[in-house]
Design brief:
heterodimer, A: mainly alpha, 20 helices, globular, disordered C terminus, B: mainly alpha, two-stranded antiparallel sheet, 2 strands
């Protein structure tokens, strides 16, 4: 599918439609664009690897595989759905398998974590549902046609400004919880820490991207005015998230928790990139989505393998892993470096582009956010230093190294990370038309609606933002 | 056949026998069972024979309902028995839901009666009589009929609630239900009297006509009457603040009876609510609509919040049924919306929700019946469900499915039903109701998950002496299969059922 995807087209491809709920305007409507195609491919990549990674599992294997496949179905559904209600159905459906996977196969505090995950997400989707329904019916009362097909709703221009902001906020709460943005992030460390290895990988690799994906796919296209108006709010939240995640990560003792907080920081960059509302920032966002899934997925896998062997993830109890298990240590270092954005690896491309996009438009946000990059290096390398370097002691003394199966699971993620780091052009080619169309949609819509107010304020920002598209856009493909 | 109000020379009103045939079939079945019982006395064959009679009566009713449905689709709704009853798709639809609930209750209770050594035939007769009352309620077009139906359905239920007479809790439930039920009937009757005093008629269409043509100088009596009617019906549908009896009665009554009460009675109550208020008092919509919305909010919030602090599964499900009544009331509020489109959607959502809810709740209470098997229907504490999944994975899985469906998880009927009422609420611009609704369903989800977590807890002591040993009888398996299958089917492909509910809203 990735191969057949036509890089030149901005719109949706492979669209299929079936009526689902009779005449209530809900239909099973799927298709992909430049953003979702990568998420679908990523999902398809992560799940087989995840199943391979959990091959050692020996309790209730049938049930595990059952939930596993339902989870994959629902995630695919989320990224493929074009109909808003179908999207919401998969969005909610996701909770069930994830809940049972965490509660059934997680660590000590699993029941609490699973419950927290379920309730947080459900509370978020409550607002999402209300917003979707409101949008659908407002559209119906204006045009007489009840539909939740977001392509139709996107073309429709009838929302009053204040309504649009409310609806945007409704979508935002749901996506921000999933993303997670700063004030809505508290579920993530608990859930990531208590989830089984595979659960963490899926959470980090795919679930966290759903929030950002939602912003890109739905919030922007449906509520361009509100997106422009509220962008500063989200920029501030994302910068807080970057710094907060990084600082808290530096204080963690548990490796999994540390990676979880680092995810909050990385997701900050992602949202920062999105809400610069520039092509370059949006491209960056997609790269971060893919890259973060690869690197953090790899980190969680390695820590999971480590945990299977040592039964502890507390850093102060682990010493000299590198010497005891060189392959494990080496891969961990590799993933760490990719995560903190060493040039040549995928983390760098994404964060650099996001900062670049932000710098052009909102200089100070970029400056502050850049501190997050430095902090990332601090906490990751500090953790590495404490647990992996030095002389093996205690539980790590008789550490077995990774076996072939485990290497096979981790290696593709890291290889892809190198690939993207060295040559991100294939991704950018496929993403860029979609993003250009998105920006064009913004320009058309905000000009069209409110030329005096939000248009005036937003217009110079965008024209500034679009200017460097030519410059760095060309040079980066050579990197 | 359209029958008009008869002229003065005819002493008795003409009766459209097709319209009343389902009622005749049900009541006939009940009488036949009692006859068999009195002839056969203590014979071993009395119980199987009465099950056979009940099944035949229900099958006949089902066929008659299908015939009615086609008839009405072709010829439009009609009134009969001097405008007392109305034959329309609304009534046929809800009668069918009630019939299905009755059949499932019968399946769930056949084994139960045997093992608890209760008299079977009388139980079945009461069940059929009560169901007949509910069906009459769905097609009532006159306040007197509504009241008669209310009594016909309630009195057998009082007896059924106390049916397990050796168990104190069951007796207590029966008395409690009887005292409060009788009180609410009295309030309802007083409401009828006041409305009659204001309008001079008890016919619902007559009241609407009168109010359309005349303006009341003094509205006080009518308003108090409307309030009393709402209180009386609010009691039957267990809406807060008229819910006080629900947890106690649901907990104490025999579990299959609880299943019947929570599903069919609620359907009948909502049928009455919709009939009386949408047909009789549409012009006073602005007056009673806020009250209904208030009941909806209170029911959703109180139902889901109080469910959390319960430690008894039956009580939890009782509070959850209160919350469900709140969601349905959102649909009712939307059905009273001013714009015709939104109103139709609201009514459709209400009917659809009642259909789905009946299956979900009967399924859940059937599992409760199964789990309490070894303790003679006495132990329903949450702790009795600990580690159920370890010993009885199928039963635990089925209950988990029903609970998730009630929580509104996608691909179950519960999700579609909630989606529809919330959509109807949004369509009617009742955004605050929808927001409270979705938030309260998050709270309720916590409660459902608590049960699920307990069942899937692996640390329970399954070898302890008092541990629950559940076994499935064939009839119960069939009931569970039907309810779970339908809940799932409606969740995946709701189109056909939604169409049915939509048809049923026509020409109300």
């Amino acid at each position: 599918m990735l191969y057949e995807f036509d890089a030149g087209k901005p719109g949706l491809q492979f669209v299929e439609q079936y009526d689902w709920f009779g005449d209530t305007g809900v239909s099973y409507l799927v298709g992909v664009d430049g953003v979702s195609v990568f998420m679908v491919v990523l999902t398809a990549l992560v799940f087989p690897l995840g199943l391979l990674a959990s091959a050692r599992l020996d309790v209730r294997v049938k049930a595990y595989t059952f939930w596993f496949l339902i989870l994959e179905t629902s995630i695919m559904g989320i990224f493929l759905a074009i109909d808003l209600i179908a999207f919401f159905i998969f969005w909610e459906l996701l909770l069930v398998p994830m809940y049972f996977i965490i509660a059934g196969w997680g660590h000590e505090n699993r029941v609490y974590a699973a419950m927290k995950f379920f309730l947080y997400t459900m509370a978020g989707s409550a607002f999402l549902l209300v917003s979707i329904l409101t949008l659908g019916f407002l559209h119906q009362s204006a045009t007489g046609n009840l539909t939740f097909d977001f392509r139709t709703l996107m073309e429709w221009n009838g929302l009053a400004e204040s309504t649009e902001i409310w609806l945007f906020l409704g979508f935002m709460v749901s996506f921000a919880i999933k993303a997670p943005l700063f004030p809505f992030h508290t579920w993530l460390p608990d859930v990531h820490t208590e989830a089984p290895t595979f659960g963490s990988v899926v959470l980090a690799g795919v679930l966290l991207k759903m929030g950002a994906y939602g912003f890109l796919r739905f919030s922007f296209t449906l509520f361009p005015d509100a997106s422009v108006d509220l962008a500063p709010l989200l920029l501030v939240l994302s910068v807080i998230g970057i710094l907060y995640g990084a600082i808290v990560a530096a204080r963690q003792r548990d490796l999994k928790r540390l990676i979880a907080y680092s995810s909050i920081s990385h997701m900050g960059f992602l949202v920062l990139g999105i809400f610069t509302l520039t092509t370059i920032g949006l491209d960056a966002a997609v790269i971060i989505m893919v890259s973060h899934a690869l690197t953090t997925g790899a980190l969680f896998l390695i820590v999971g393998f480590l945990d299977e062997r040592t039964h502890t993830r507390i850093m102060s109890e682990l010493h000299g892993i590198w010497r005891a298990a060189p392959i494990l240590g080496g891969l961990f270092l590799f993933a760490t470096l990719a995560g903190i954005g060493v040039p040549g690896l995928s983390g760098f491309v994404g964060e650099f582009l996001a900062l670049l996009g932000a710098f052009v438009v909102h200089r100070w946000y970029a400056v502050v956010a850049a501190i997050g990059v430095i902090l990332a290096a601090v906490y990751m390398l500090y953790a590495f230093q404490q647990s992996f370097t030095g002389v093996p002691k205690g539980v790590t003394e008789k550490l077995r190294d990774l076996n072939l199966r485990e290497i096979i699971v981790v290696a593709p993620l890291l290889l892809l990370s190198v690939g993207i780091g060295l040559y991100p052009k294939p991704i950018l080619d496929r993403v860029e038309p979609t993003m250009k169309a998105l920006i064009a949609h913004f320009e058309e819509r905000t000009d069209y609606r409110e030329p005096q107010q939000s248009g005036e304020e937003a217009e110079p920002r965008r024209s500034e933002g679009t200017r460097p598209r030519g410059g760095p856009g060309h040079s980066r493909s050579g990197r | 056949m359209i029958t008009q109000v008869p002229g003065p020379e005819i002493a008795t009103p003409s009766v459209d026998w097709l319209a009343v045939s389902p009622l005749i079939a049900m009541v006939g079945g009940a009488i036949a069972i009692i006859l068999v019982r009195s002839i056969a006395r203590r014979s071993r064959h009395a119980y199987p024979a009465s099950i056979g009679i009940a099944l035949v009566a229900m099958a006949a009713t089902a066929v008659l309902l299908v015939i009615q449905w086609h008839d009405v689709t072709d010829e439009g709704p009609t009134s009969t028995v001097a405008g007392m009853l109305r034959l329309d798709l609304f009534g046929v639809f809800l009668s069918a839901v009630i019939l299905a609930a009755t059949l499932l209750t019968l399946l769930a209770s056949s084994g139960y009666l045997r093992r608890e050594r209760l008299d079977g035939p009388e139980y079945l007769a009461l069940l059929l009589l009560s169901a007949a009352g509910m069906m009459a309620m769905t097609s009532a077009n006159d306040l007197i009929i509504v009241f008669l139906a209310l009594e016909i359905l309630s009195i057998p239920l009082y007896v059924l609630a106390a049916y397990d007479r050796r168990r104190l809790a069951s007796q207590e439930a029966g008395i409690k239900y009887f005292v409060l039920g009788a009180f609410s009937s009295a309030v309802f009757l007083y409401g009828i009297a006041l409305v009659y005093g204001a309008t001079g008629t008890t016919s619902l269409t007559g009241i609407a006509d009168f109010l359309a043509r005349n303006t009341l100088i003094e509205e006080g009596g009518l308003l108090i009457g409307i309030a009393f009617l709402l209180v009386g019906i609010g009691f039957k549908i267990a809406a807060v603040p008229f819910h006080m009896w629900t947890p106690d009665v649901y907990q104490g009554a025999p579990s299959p009876v609880t299943a019947f009460m929570s599903s069919a009675t609620k359907v009948a109550g909502f049928a009455a609510l919709l009939r009386v208020f949408l047909i009789g008092l549409p012009l006073f919509g602005d007056t009673w609509r806020p009250a209904v919305a208030g009941l909806a909010i209170l029911s959703m919030v109180v139902g889901s919040v109080l469910a959390i602090v319960q430690s008894d599964v039956k009580r939890m499900l009782a509070y959850s049924s209160i919350a469900h009544a709140g969601y349905v009331l959102i649909g009712v509020t939307a059905a009273a919306a001013s714009s015709g489109d939104a109103a139709e959607r609201g009514l459709q959502a209400t009917l659809f929700y009642l259909l789905v809810y009946a299956f979900m709740t009967i399924g859940a209470f059937t599992v409760v019946t199964v789990v309490a098997r070894s303790s003679h229907d006495a132990r329903h504490a949450l702790s009795d469900y600990r580690s159920l999944a370890t010993t009885r994975p199928v039963i635990a899985g089925v209950l988990a499915f029903f609970l998730l469906a009630q929580a509104g998880v996608p691909l179950t009927g519960g999700f579609v039903a909630k989606l529809e009422v919330f959509a109807a609420g949004a369509d009617a611009h009742e955004y605050y109701l929808v927001i409270i609704g979705v938030l309260s369903s998050v709270v309720a989800a916590y409660m459902y998950l608590r049960i699920v977590v307990t069942m899937f807890d692996t640390e329970g002591d399954v070898d302890a002496p008092g541990y629950v040993r559940a076994r499935l009888e064939a009839t119960v398996s069939i009931a569970l299969l039907i309810t779970a299958g339908l809940t799932l089917a409606i969740g995946i492909a709701p189109g056909w059922f939604l169409e049915l509910a939509k048809d049923a809203t026509l020409a109300l």
